[in-house]
Specification:
By secondary structure, the protein is α+β, with helices and mostly antiparallel strands. Helices cover 34% and strands 19% of the residues. The protein has three domains: 142 residues, Nucleoside Triphosphate Pyrophosphohydrolase; 83 residues, no CATH class; 135 residues, no CATH class. Strand 1 and strand 2 form a beta hairpin.
């Protein structure tokens, strides 16, 4: 580096001033729902909007600045009225996109906490409300907190497959069906989607993971066996690595409950019938008109992106179509759109939809791909092929999204 360059590098006016903040994503399973602890802001910016507990890291007049861990603990307790005593806590990531905070250049360090506190939160300073909110409510969140929560949920979904973290969502004593339901809730599966016998054998067969408790409770004549954390967790904590991963939905190949219906009569002259297409059932909480409208809105957004040769993140798509990206209904709509386009002779157009961290579709995409007859060996190769085909299909068939050529 030249002397002049070094001089320029030392100029204070070239260094952008920024503040450091902390935010905490606190997750619990409550009432068979994965919930996040949110506060409703009582002051600007984003007054009246839901947000994560957090705030700026503080320093004193003597130039001493509190640590990030001290700051996140102070902000959590000040805004929720609860002491931060998480079963598991780790740093999630750093977020510093320009414009994320209208007050200026603010970089936030986000933390993930499982079961961060006992009791009901109470609104603290500059807070109107504080409560555990279901992820499927579609809240319009302040700052970039929707993205931070999205990343936290994806992290937890990954961790429970390879570590003992799912047990951190349980009480001191728990039954095996309850632990199995924890996995299903976090992976957004229907009750009993995971095979009870296989799950019980897998968990109890791992050395030191859980221990039976000498206590049974009779319900309807059937005793319930309780378990507690084993020496593996006591020694290494909730993120202790498992001997063998718990099968995730797309790996186990049988968890996603997509029913198959017979395809229409084969074309005249064809020797074999085509592979049956999955039938994606409309969620019970969506009325038929809302279901069709949601599919059409998804098509409209995907066609706009495809015509531009671009993809879209799950959170962005959900926001544009008015559905929450964590909800099962949102993914059912995506699956239905893909199946309908494949049935019409096209590709899996939802290959254009991806999560931020991996820039890839989620596990459900690959489950559906197999059901549609795709060979899932190299997932990136499959996605690239489907994306290319999706862009070509969209440009050749704008009318399927109600787009009329000029």
């Amino acid at each position: 580096m030249t002397a002049s360059a070094m001089a320029d590098d030392d100029r204070s006016d070239l260094r952008p001033a920024f503040a450091v903040a902390v935010d905490l994503v606190g997750l619990e399973v409550r009432g068979e729902e994965l919930r996040v602890l949110l506060i409703k802001r009582g002051r600007e910016p984003f007054k009246g909007m839901w947000a994560l507990p957090g705030g700026l890291v503080q320093g004193d007049l003597g130039g001493h600045q509190e640590s990030l861990e001290d700051a996140v603990r102070r902000q959590f307790e000040a805004t929720t009225g609860l002491p931060l005593d998480a079963a598991y806590m780790t740093q999630l990531g750093t977020y510093g996109d320009p414009g994320r905070d209208p007050r200026g250049n603010v970089v936030t360090v986000a933390y993930l906490a499982v079961a961060p506190a006992e009791g009901q939160p109470q609104p603290g300073e500059d807070v109107v409300e504080a409560e555990w909110r279901p992820l499927g409510l579609g809240d319009d969140l302040a700052f970039d907190h929707a993205r931070i929560i999205e990343d936290a949920v994806e992290r937890v979904r990954d961790l429970i497959a390879t570590t003992a973290l799912a047990i951190a969502f349980c009480d001191e004593w728990f039954t095996m069906p309850y632990l199995r339901r924890i996995y299903e809730v976090i992976w957004d599966l229907e009750p009993n989607a995971l095979d009870s016998g296989n799950f019980h054998s897998r968990v109890t067969g791992m050395r030191g993971l859980v221990e039976p408790v000498d206590a049974r409770e009779s319900t309807g004549g059937r005793p319930r066996q309780f378990f507690t954390r084993g020496p593996l967790i006591q020694r290494s904590g909730p993120a202790a690595r498992l001997e063998r991963p718990i099968d995730r939905p797309w790996e186990s190949r049988h968890v996603e409950r997509i029913t198959l219906a017979p395809q229409s009569t084969p074309r005249e002259g064809s020797e074999t019938s085509e592979r049956p297409r999955p039938v994606i059932d409309r969620p019970r909480d969506m009325k038929p008109k809302a279901w069709e409208a949601a599919k059409q809105r998804v098509r409209s957004v995907l066609w706009q992106r495809g015509l531009a040769g671009e993809g879209i993140y799950y959170g962005e798509l959900a926001s544009e179509v008015g559905l929450h990206w964590h909800s099962g209904g949102f993914f059912a709509v995506l699956d239905a759109v893909s199946v309908e386009e494949v049935t019409a002779g096209g590709p899996m157009v939802t290959a254009l939809v991806m999560n931020r961290r991996a820039a890839m579709p989620g596990e459900r995409f690959f489950v559906l791909a197999e059901r549609l007859g795709r060979t899932v060996t190299d997932v990136r190769e499959l996605v690239e092929e489907e994306r290319r085909a999706a862009i070509e299909w969209i440009r050749a068939h704008p009318e399927r999204a109600g787009i009329t050529e000029a």
